[in-house]
Amino acid sequence: MTETMKVAVMNGIGKMGYTTRPIPVPEEDEVLVKLEYVGICGSDMHYYEDGRIGDFIVKPPFVLGHEPGGTVVKVGKKVKHLKQGDTVALEPGKPCGKCRFCREGKYNLCPDVAFFATPPVDGVFQEYVAHPESFCFKLPEHVSTLEGALIEPLSVGFHAVRQGDAHVGQSVVVFGAGCIGLVTMMALKACGISKVYVVDIMEKRLEKAIELGAAGVINASLTDVSESARQITKGEGFDLAVETAGTEITVNQAIEVVRKGSNIVLVGYGKTGKMNLSMSLALDKELTFKTVFRYRHIYPIAIEAVAEGKVDLKGIVTHIFDFRDIQRAMDESMKDKSRIVKAVVKIAE
Fold first, then answer.
1. What angle do CA 49, 4, 83 make, to 5 degrees?
2. What is the pLDDT of residues 196-209, one digit of tens each?
3. In DSSP terms, which residues pair with 320 in a beta bridge?
4. Running DSSP on this structure, what letter comes out for residue 300?
5. What is the pTM of this model?
6. Which residues have C-beta within 8 Å of that of residue 30, sequence separation ≥ 6?
7. How confident is the model at residue 272 (pLDDT cuts 50, 70, 90)?
8. Do residues 90 and 151 lie in contact, with contact meaning Cβ atoms separated by under 8 Å?
């Protein structure tokens, strides 16, 4: 093994480049992972395009990427459950383990979590990473490291399902047919919910939703969403709405199309963070709003769903870019959102 590794860095808004850094040395409770695939997330594109998400501001050079899968090549002295050669999906956050949220098991809310590609913590568009064994999850032999890289967004989908108290027999509408919308739809179906409908304005993405098992789709650019919902639900409204697009329009549509007393789960982040919502209608319907911030205790569930064939993660991947083409990977992912549903960077040659 060489002593240095290749690292892709964001050198400014819209500017990617490469550098070399020392290969990390794992601590006693860590493993060293040779990365093979890293997904490109919407947050990566936000940082790449705007240089910030809310109060998180990029200071170049910065490493993007937080959806990794790879192979263990070295283990620390105290590592017990992983060995060299194991393939793993890496949960990208390292919580403090001491705060109230960590002690309560809500470690995703830890204020001191170190999360890949969330400034000032670098991400993993690089060849190797050292990570705690407790946040590296072994993949079954028939689950690839490409799928391992996509366990991260799938975990968001399963957390949304939990937050919404989704259950068999419900009719559910998902707003947004990007990666998170599609994995949420698949997570719902993996939980036995057959009536899952998807709303978007991009026909290619809606076609992908149908391909992956949606009961039906609504193209909001061509039809009235509320009227379509009335027809689908015979006037009752959906039992649950999951909003992944992060727009004011779609959140208000969610309020309109759910039945009284139902839940709305908010997953998508808007650019401004502020929205004007139809709160009078929400109050009249006595709706419950739940929100999603990443996930907790989900990776084993998500991996099992993939291993059992309940979720087709490979099906959402529309583009795989080579590591040497990181500039093109980011540019095309940002500019061609109607065609690129999910892009992944292949790190290993």
1. 100
2. 999 999 999 999 99
3. 344
4. H
5. 0.96
6. 76, 79, 130, 131, 132, 133
7. confident
8. no
52: which 2 tokens? 């910030």
Q: Which residues of 65-102 are buried (b: 16+ CB within 10 A; e: fewer)?
A: bbbbbbbbbbbbeebeebeeebbbbbbbbbbeeebebb
Using a 10 angstrom Cβ sphere, with 0-12 exposed, 13-18 middle and 19 or more buried, the burial of residue 206 is: buried
What's the number of CA atoms in the CB half-sphere (13 Å) around residue 83?
0
Give, in degrees to the nearest 5, the angle at Cα 209 between 208 and 213.
115
Cα–Cα distance for residue pair 333/194, rounded to 1 Å: 31
Q: How far apart are CA 318 and CA 334, in angstroms?
A: 14
**Encoded tokens for 216:** 């039906």
Do the Cβ atoms of 297 and 273 come closer than 8 Å? no
Q: Quote the CA–CA distance of 194 and 186 in Å, as a whole number.
A: 10
- Is the pLDDT at 1 greater than 70? The verdict is no
Q: What angle do CA 187, 291, 276 make, to 5 degrees?
A: 125
Please give the share of the chain, as a percent, with pLDDT higher than 70. Answer: 99
Which residues are 121's β-sheet partners?
Answer: 118
- Collapsing DSSP to helix, strand or coil, 270 comes out as coil
Sorting pLDDT into bands at 50, 70 and 90, what band is 274? confident
Question: Tell me: the pLDDT tens digits for 108-128?
Answer: 999 999 999 999 999 999 999
The token duo for 188 is 């719902």
CB 176 within 8 A of CB 268: yes
CA distances from 332 to 48, 167, 179, 182, 239 (A): 12, 37, 15, 20, 37
End-to-end, the C-alpha distance of the chain in Å comes to: 15
- Please give the DSSP secondary-structure letter assigned to residue 132: E
- Please state whether the peptide bond connecting residue 300 to the residue before it is cis, i.e. omega within 30 degrees of 0: no
Distant-in-sequence, close-in-space partners of 64: CB < 8 Å, separation ≥ 6: 8, 10, 44, 47, 48, 117, 123, 125, 330
Domains and CATH numbers, the chain: 4-150+317-346 (3.90.180.10), 157-291 (3.40.50.720)
CA nearest neighbour of 317 among 138, 173, 182: 182
Is residue 257 a contact partner of residue 238, using CB atoms and an 8 Å limit?
Answer: yes
